[in-house]
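Hi all, posting the design record for the shared folder.

TITLE: backbone redesign
STEP: 1 of 1
STRUCTURE INPUT:
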């Protein structure tokens, strides 16, 4: 998930944040993945960040959400993929949702809503316009077959519906053309079970959790990458040794050359060798692009969303480091490395033993309470939409919420650019 400062597209972002601090809004974006680990779309959720009872008025939430999607742009929020937008019956019946692009929007309703003739008529009309419809089931019972027949997606909250309930629900849905989405999938075990039950799409953070395997060994080329990471911690970098290490892996060499030639590095001279790249980029930039390339290689067999989140974490921690007196370079490393265990499918405890990190950085990665882990803790809570904890972290460490959100917005944009350069 991500939270951004919602604003008009025109004007300077920093100026707008300073002038319109009272208009801050929170948008959560959670990926929905297919069986190959590709992003099928994103669910968007909204909170105004100020009023604790704001969510009680669901129509107000929906109207505000629609307004801010209009301001910020649905394509940007969902990266051009399908956007699943939480709606109320009134928002469909009164056609508030027509402000959204039909081909990119999935209108999401609770399956427990009353399927009145007006709601069924409105849903059918909106589908004729090109909108898709999703029903979220959290009871295991099929409340309305009429709505289910119109649905393009049936989302089942596996945190609330047990295996027996899911089996019963899927039996009732036999013959439905709707695609089944397992919601709140947090472990690989849950993902595997959902696959067996017939779910096609999956929502949750199971893909960010390492799957520990007994006697698992890391392939030789990735051991080289770990040796490169060790070299990156030295001041100054041994450029000759670093060049030799990078050239031991053709894939990593290609990634580094492409990244150095990308807008991320702003190098105007053509790069044709690793040594040239090192000289032109300089140590600081090389550290960053080397970590990008290593992260990309580690993530070869994993969903691309892990890589996107790793890039966002690293860049956010680096940008926000000055807000709490931390070292930007080390924070970038902590943010990026935090997802290496999920990429390599090993435990964090094993990961930190392989790296020459300071004890404080290791403790941050292990989730222990220390200053070096403040920003990583914030962004992990942010990904899960835990706004209360995010704001508590900001307050307890005397940070500016506006500046934190600006750092995150910039990190999201930077991660997108990094992925395009790496693609």
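Okay, here is what came back for every position:
SEQUENCE:
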């Amino acid at each position: 998930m991500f939270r951004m400062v919602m604003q008009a597209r025109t004007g300077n972002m920093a100026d707008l944040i300073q002038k319109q601090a009272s208009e801050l809004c929170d948008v959560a974006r959670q990926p929905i993945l297919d069986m190959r680990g590709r992003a099928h779309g994103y669910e968007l959720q909204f909170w105004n960040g100020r009023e604790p009872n704001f969510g009680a008025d669901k129509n107000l939430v929906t109207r505000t959400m629609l307004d801010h999607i209009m301001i910020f742009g649905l394509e940007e929020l969902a990266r051009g993929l399908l956007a699943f937008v939480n709606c109320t019956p009134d928002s469909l019946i009164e056609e508030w949702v027509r402000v959204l692009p039909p081909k990119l929007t999935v209108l999401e309703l609770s399956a427990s809503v009353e399927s009145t003739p007006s709601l069924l008529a409105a849903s059918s009309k909106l589908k004729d316009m090109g909108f898709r419809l999703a029903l979220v089931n959290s009871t295991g019972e099929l409340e309305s077959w009429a709505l289910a027949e119109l649905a393009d997606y049936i989302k089942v909250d596996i945190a609330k519906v047990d295996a027996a309930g899911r089996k019963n629900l899927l039996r009732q849905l036999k013959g439905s053309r709707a695609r089944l989405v397992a919601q709140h999938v947090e472990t690989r075990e849950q993902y595997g079970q959902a696959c067996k039950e017939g779910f096609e799409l999956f929502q949750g953070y199971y893909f960010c959790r390492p799957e520990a395997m007994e006697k698992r060994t890391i392939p030789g080329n990735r051991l080289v990458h770990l040796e490169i990471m060790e070299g990156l911690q030295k001041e100054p970098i041994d450029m000759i040794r670093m060049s030799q290490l990078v050239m031991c892996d053709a894939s990593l060499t290609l990634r580094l050359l492409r990244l150095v030639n990308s807008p991320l590095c702003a190098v105007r001279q053509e790069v044709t060798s690793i040594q040239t790249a090192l000289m032109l980029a300089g140590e600081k930039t090389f550290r960053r692009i080397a970590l990008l390339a290593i992260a990309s290689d580690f993530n070869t067999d994993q969903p691309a969303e892990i890589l996107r989140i790793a890039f966002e974490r690293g860049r956010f921690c680096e940008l926000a480091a000055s807000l709490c007196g931390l070292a930007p370079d080390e924070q970038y490393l902590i943010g990026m490395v935090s997802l290496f265990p999920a990429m390599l499918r090993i435990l964090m405890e094993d990961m930190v033993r392989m790296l020459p990190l300071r004890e404080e950085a290791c403790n941050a990665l292990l989730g222990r309470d220390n200053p070096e882990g403040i920003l990583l803790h914030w962004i992990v809570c942010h990904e899960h939409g835990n706004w209360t904890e995010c704001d508590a972290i900001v307050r307890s460490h005397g940070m500016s919420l506006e500046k934190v959100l600006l750092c995150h917005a910039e990190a999201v944009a930077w991660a997108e650019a990094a992925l395009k350069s790496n693609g």
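COMMENT: Residues 114 and 201 are 26 Å apart (CA to CA).
Let me know if anyone wants the other runs.
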